[in-house]
Amino acid sequence: MKIGFFRFLIAVLLIGFGVVLVLENIGVMDFNGRDAWGYIYPSLFILFGIKWMIDRMKHRGGSYAWGSFFFIFGSLLLLDRFDIITFSFGDVFKLWPLLIIYFGFLFIGNSFKPKIIIQKKGNHEEVIDAEYSNSSFFTVGNHEFNKPNWKVEPTTIKTLAGDFYYDFSKAYIPEKEIPITVNALAGDVHILIPENIEFQIKASVKAGDIDIVGQTVDGINRSLSYVTPNYDTATRKLNFTLKLKAGSIRVDLV
């Protein structure tokens, strides 16, 4: 059952406030109820930061940069409230080095694109599995395939870390079997496939979860295979091989 974010936010605040009052009553900490706002607004920063990062991972807007900034800022403020460090609201300018870090990640994301290994034989193309290639194809960054009428081609992508988002409802899919391989140490794979497209998937994660059109597994060393009923006889079809060391794989029909 899904729960709205603001309802969840209120619940977390009430639970946290109750825990703090209990700790005060048993002498673990000294808390003045009149200073409650000093604890509440840093907690709000943290929760909103987490929400923005989760929304970005799920491709529902959000921002890694702003999300992580508010998470860090709120966490430092809370650490000050608990007398662990000294950090006030006005010290926000001390976080300016985060801009350098964000630009560094932005540069990595824009500079390292997916490496596609395609071997041409005659009039057709054959994908060479990067796992058996002599070349190195390690990259870092997020990869989104969701532009209108983007062309689906046989691909093999191997990354150190990154998120993948495929929206085949916006793609031009040729009349042939198209293999697509994703191999990553860490990341999330989210795929949208139209209901009229035949496909098969072999997915595996060392640690994480897999959800293929409602069929789910999670935990350690999990794998899941799925094939549509008319895959063998179809002329236009997608053949996925998805391997993650850590992360999640999700496939939805649209």
TrEMBL record:
GO terms for cellular component: membrane. The chain crosses the membrane at residues 5-24, 36-54, 66-89, 95-112. Keywords: Membrane, Transmembrane, Transmembrane helix. It holds the Pfam family LiaF-TM. The keyword Ribonucleoprotein does not apply. InterPro entries: Cell_wall_LiaF, LiaF-like_C, LiaF_C, LiaF_TM. It comes from the Bacteria. Residues 140-251 form the Cell wall-active antibiotics response LiaF-like C-terminal domain. The keyword Transmembrane helix applies. Residues 10-111 form the LiaF transmembrane domain. This is Lia operon protein LiaF. The lineage of its organism: Bacteria, Bacillati, Bacillota, Bacilli, Bacillales.
